[in-house]
Design goal:
heterodimer; A: 300 residues; mainly alpha; 4 domains; B: 66 residues; 434 Repressor (Amino-terminal Domain); two-stranded antiparallel sheet; 5 helices; transmembrane (chain A); transmembrane helix (chain A)
C-alpha cells in the first residue's frame, strides 16, 4: 500500500498552536504594520530604496507560523486514521483547490468587467482584492484553510458515519484537449513575449494561466480507471506539499520586490507541480507497462 | 455492492466499535460501509472477512449496477 505522506497525530495540536498565534501576528503585521521590536538582522551595509539595511523578520515569522501550522493541521493523521479518512482528506483537497481557483476566476472575470463597464459593487470587490495584493496574500493560505474547513465539516457532520461522494472530473473531450492547448499556448506565448521585451503591464493575460491550467487539471485522461484516479489525488497532495515548501523557502530567501514575484507565481504553482508529478507518474507506469509487454512478446 | 455486514455482526454479537478496533479502522467507517455508502479496499474487505472466518464473497456481493 502506498504510504500516505501524513504527519503523526501529535503534530495536529502543534499545528493549532502555530497557526492561531500566526494568524493573529500576521493580521497585526499586514493591517497594523506591527513589527516585533528588535527582531531584526542587519543584512546589508546601507539602505537602498526597496531594501532597508536591517530586515525585520516579523512578517516572515508570521507567514512561516501560519503555513506550517495549517499544513500540520490539514495533513496530520486523525486519532483513528483509516483508508476512509485518508480518502476524505484527498477529496477535500480536490475541492479546496477547485474552490480557491474558482474564486480566483470570479475575481478575474470581475476585473475584466471592471475595465469595460463601471459597476460600483464589482469595482469595489476588484479593488479590495488587488489593492495591497490582498488576494495574493490570501492565496498563500486559503487552499489550506478551505481544505481544513471542508475536511472537518465532512468528518463531524454526522456522528455516526462519514460522508464520501465520488469526485467528478470534466470529460476528456473537449475539456482536457482544450485545457492542454490553451495552457501550453498561453505559456509559450508569455515566454516569447517576455523574451521579445514586451512591457510587463501588457502581459496581464498571464493571469488567465492558472484558470486554463485548471481545465487541464480537473479533466479526465483518455482512459480513466481507479488506479489513475488514485495517482491523481496523490499527485495533488504532493503538489500542495511542494508548493508550500517552495513558499517557505522563498519566504526566507527572497525579500522586497522579489517576494512580490513569489506571491504572483504562487497563483500558478499548485496546478503546475500537480501536472508535472501526475504526468511523470503516468509516463513511468506506461513505460513499465510497455517494457513488460515487450518482454512477454520476446518470451512467446 | 451490497454487504451482509450488519447480519454477520449480529450473529457474532459484536458491536461496530469492537469490529472497528479489531481491524484498525474507526467506528464511523464501519457504519459507512454497512450503509453501503463506501466500498472498502480489498485489504480491508479481507480483514473483515477474516474476523468473521468467512470468505469475502460471503459478506460482500457485486450488484448489477457495479
Amino acid at each position: 500500500m502506498r504510504s500516505r505522506l501524513l504527519f503523526p497525530h501529535r503534530f495536529k495540536l502543534l499545528g493549532w498552536l502555530l497557526a492561531l498565534p500566526g494568524f493573529v501576528l500576521g493580521y497585526q503585521v499586514v493591517y497594523n504594520d506591527y513589527n516585533i521590536p528588535g527582531f531584526e538582522l542587519v543584512l546589508r551595509e546601507k539602505s537602498s530604496l526597496f531594501l532597508s539595511a536591517s530586515e525585520n523578520f516579523t512578517n516572515e515569522l508570521a507567514l512561516t507560523m501560519v503555513i506550517t501550522g495549517l499544513l500540520l493541521i490539514a495533513f496530520s493523521k486523525q486519532k483513528t486514521e483509516d483508508e476512509l479518512t485518508a480518502k476524505m482528506r484527498l477529496n477535500a483537497l480536490y475541492w479546496s483547490i477547485l474552490v480557491n481557483f474558482c474564486w480566483y476566476g470570479v475575481l478575474v472575470v470581475f476585473a475584466v468587467i471592471n475595465t469595460i463597464v463601471h459597476i460600483t459593487s464589482i469595482g469595489s470587490i476588484v479593488s479590495f482584492a488587488s489593492d495591497n495584493l490582498t488576494f495574493t496574500v490570501y492565496n498563500l493560505f486559503m487552499p489550506l484553510v478551505i481544505l481544513i474547513v471542508r475536511f472537518y465539516y465532512l468528518l463531524y457532520k454526522n456522528k455516526e458515519e462519514y460522508e464520501i461522494k465520488p469526485l467528478r472530473f470534466l470529460s476528456y473531450k473537449p475539456y482536457r484537449i482544450l485545457g492542454i492547448i490553451l495552457s501550453v499556448g498561453l505559456f509559450t506565448g508569455l515566454i516569447i513575449a517576455n523574451l521579445a521585451g514586451v512591457d510587463e503591464n501588457k502581459l496581464s493575460v498571464a493571469y488567465l494561466l492558472p484558470l486554463v491550467m485548471l481545465l487541464w487539471v480537473y479533466s479526465k485522461e483518455k482512459e480513466e480507471d481507479e488506479y489513475i484516479n488514485t495517482i491523481r489525488l496523490n499527485a495533488m497532495q504532493i503538489a500542495v506539499y511542494v508548493n508550500y515548501a517552495i513558499l517557505l523557502i522563498g519566504n526566507f530567501a527572497v525579500y522586497g520586490l522579489g517576494f512580490l514575484y513569489v506571491l504572483v507565481f504562487n497563483l500558478a504553482t499548485i496546478p503546475t507541480i500537480f501536472l508535472i508529478v501526475f504526468h511523470y507518474r503516468l509516463y513511468k507506469i506506461r513505460q513499465e507497462d510497455s517494457e513488460r509487454s515487450r518482454l512477454n512478446l520476446n518470451l512467446l | 455492492m451490497k454487504n451482509t455486514l450488519r447480519v454477520e455482526r449480529a450473529i457474532k454479537n459484536i458491536t461496530q466499535a469492537d469490529l472497528a478496533a479489531a481491524i484498525g479502522v474507526s467506528r464511523q467507517t464501519i457504519n459507512t460501509i454497512e450503509s453501503n455508502k463506501y466500498v472498502p479496499s480489498t485489504v480491508l474487505a479481507l480483514k473483515i472477512a477474516r474476523v468473521f472466518d468467512k470468505p469475502v464473497e460471503a459478506i460482500f456481493e457485486l450488484e448489477d449496477g457495479d
